[in-house]
Amino acid sequence: MSAQSRARRAAGVHISASDRSSALRAVLYARYSTDKQNEMSCEDQLAMCREAALRNGYVIAAEYSDAAVSGRTLLANRPGIVALKERAKRGDIDAIFVEGIERIGRRTADIGQIADWFESRQIELFAANGGRIDWKMLPFLGAFAEYQSRETGDKTRRGQVGATRRGKVPAGVAFGYRVSAAAHSGREIDPVQAQIVKRVFSEYAAGIPPRTIAAKLNIEGVPSPRGGLWNDSTIRGNAKKRDGMLRNEAYIGRLVYGRNAFLRDPDTGNRISRPAHDEAIVSSDCPELQIVADDVWNRVQDRLAETHDTFARKSTPLNRSHQPKYLLSALLSCGGCGGGFVIVGRERYGCSTAKTKGPAGCTHTRTISRRKLEGRVLAELRQDLLTPEYADVFATEVLAELQRSGASAGDERLALEKKIASLDTTIERLLDRLECDEPSAALLARLKSRETERAELTAALAALADGEARPLPSHAEIAAGFAAQVRRLEQLITDGDHIIEANAILRELVGTLAVMPDREAPEGFTVAAEDTRHEG
């Protein structure tokens, strides 16, 4: 056969390196770990990446960053990474530039996942401090980065333990103190804040509740430790975690480190704290930092212990603690601030924000008898719900929603049918391979998996078809069902043993109710469904 008559290449689109655009496009990514680092850290990293990209002949298409985000935070929780991936999906990016691979992350699982994702799109990786990096090397480098992260954490903790034992404050600046380079501990007493600390301890020791103390401080405009409004939990803290102002042993001249261990949830990547064992807690005396007298401190600790023991004995199983205790439990909101409207005293409802933060948090400070509030709600229900007009509106809205659901079910049916058709094609191809090749275990397992998936989709389609086959209830039937629910609610209300069911029916009928202050109304308040409180 002569050279001129040789068979040509197969028809199709042939891609060669010379076909690529002369302008290679790159995206840049930067990250720094905590809000204690220099805010310019990301900009400095991006500057290095710009120089590296231009040096390697790339045009910069976009820049992304995650500021004050740990490298062990899940990729899905990092806005910069999410935006970078969305940009890369357009298909016109050739490379990613980072300062170093630890900027991508310090969790081996995440790094392996992101390496697969970008490599599958033929996007190359460059480190400004190391040149081009093969994606298959990234998991190994990532494992080392994770090891370094954990080792750094261990060394930091060892350093903080040592600092505590030497009488130096190892962490942040507590309320009542300020930084002092001249002091051995690194802290000195702030005279203005110290007076607030003494006042809080004295008032609590005298029997004043933390909520009342917080409310008074807010009314007086005293900034909280974080600069905002005071909250009762800021003062009392948590007994298990041994935190809060009233449990801070620095106020009696004792530095304590390690009361809580900080870990990361592997599922969410969130940082969580757990109370540490007593053996892991270290302390040292630092008498120059004492603000609160020993006798006042002891009275406060006695009251805290007594309060905790009292409420600990009243604990209930978790499933019972979340059940509604009253008819309106979890159905009310404050019309003033949008917070919860809950039981705040003996048989009285009130705004939870006003209770914990005082008038500075919400001016709706008036409380209402539970029985009067329930009576008001029930009277309005009888007036509004038990009318043909309301039943007609309810039936119309429900019927419209059912019709909308039916339309979406049609879309879902088409999607299921499309998936089943695609699986049928895949199964046919697998069967063809089994007829021609030796039936390997992997091939048989794949066939079984696809057949199982098809059976599940077929069952879902049948269930959907069954639902579509049922005729929609008529307008009259829905209105009759609504009237039956209202009558059932009235029966349950008269029987205190069925509060849970009555609460559920009420939630279904009216949703959330907003309690709004109104001087002209009886008892000084009005009640309305939350979605109608701003109408008219």
Any overview of this molecule?
The structure is a single chain. By secondary structure, this protein is of the alpha/beta class. It is 46% helix and 14% strand. It has 15 helices and 17 strands. The strands form 6 sheets. A 5-stranded mixed beta sheet has the order 2-1-3-4-5, sandwiched between helices. It has a 3-stranded mixed beta sheet with strand order 12-16-17, with no helix packed on it. Helix 12 crosses helix 14 and helix 14 runs antiparallel to helix 15 (499-510). The termini are far apart.
Offer a quick outline of the entry.
The chain is an alpha/beta fold. It is 46% helix and 14% strand.
Strand order of the largest sheet: 2-1-3-4-5
Poorly predicted sequence stretches spanning 5 or more consecutive residues: 17-21, 315-322, 532-536
The helix count comes to: 15
Record field, number of beta strands: 17
Proportion in helices: 40-55%
N-C termini distance: 92 Å
| Helix-strand makeup class | alpha/beta
The rounded Rg comes to 33 Å
Beta content = 5-15%
Could you describe the largest sheet, including whether it forms a barrel?
Answer: 5 strands, mixed
Query: How confident overall, as mean pLDDT?
Result: 78
Instruction: Identify the overall geometry.
Output: flat
InterPro entries: DNA_bind_recomb_sf (IPR038109), DNA_bind_recombinase_dom (IPR011109), Resolv_N (IPR006119), Resolvase-like_N_sf (IPR036162), SSR_resolvase (IPR050639), Zn_ribbon_recom_dom (IPR025827)
Protein name: Recombinase family protein
What's the topology here?
Blueprint lengths: L23 E8 L9 H15 L2 E9 L12 H10 L6 E4 L9 H12 L4 E4 L3 E3 L4 H28 L11 E3 L7 E3 L1 H15 L4 H10 L12 H5 L17 E4 L2 E5 L6 E5 L6 E4 L8 H19 L5 H4 L10 E3 L6 E5 L2 E4 H6 L10 E2 H15 L3 H49 L4 H29 L5 H19 L5 H12 L2 E5 L7 E5 L7
Parallel strand pairs: 1-2, 1-3, 3-4, 12-16
Antiparallel strand pairs: 4-5, 6-7, 8-11, 9-10, 13-14, 14-15, 16-17
